[in-house]
Design a protein that fits this description.
Layout: E1 6-11, E2 14-19, H1 29-44, E3 50-55, E4 60-62, H2 67-71, E5 98-102, E6 105-107, H3 109-116, E7 119-122, E8 127-129, H4 131-134, H5 146-149
Parallel strand pairs: 2-3, 3-5, 4-6, 5-7, 6-8
Antiparallel strand pairs: 1-2
Amino acid sequence: MAESPLRLTRYGGVLQVVLDRPPANAIDAATSRAMGECFAAFRDDPALRVAIVTGAGEKFFSAGWDLKEAAQGVAPDSDYGIGGFGGIQQLPNLNKPVIAAVNGMAVGGGFELALSADLIIAAEAARFRISATSASTCGCGTPACGSMRCPITRP
């Protein structure tokens, strides 16, 4: 059995979710589904009050969509599970805060994951980039895309 791409730790009412897919914490469809299940369980657990999502290691928070999976022919509109890509972008009735603790590079879908959180806490070395905005396009093709979310995210 493959090892889980998520490390979950409870500290009282706090759920820590560590995305652990070396080397870049890229999110494939299976990882996205696991994240959706994790955040749905967080939403439904009355003992949990806040979730913190972060990436394992110091170089990447998340590189976003797993391009190796894409190169193998997996469609970009795969079944990402409840909550959509990364588990929280489209999760219905999520009424508890999610904090993104960005400890490295948040690129593409990894940046979108951070933007989907209620609060981003960035390490001094954190870097953010959505390459689709450099090309004046929205790479994900949905209204939940990070370049669409930027103007509505408040400090």
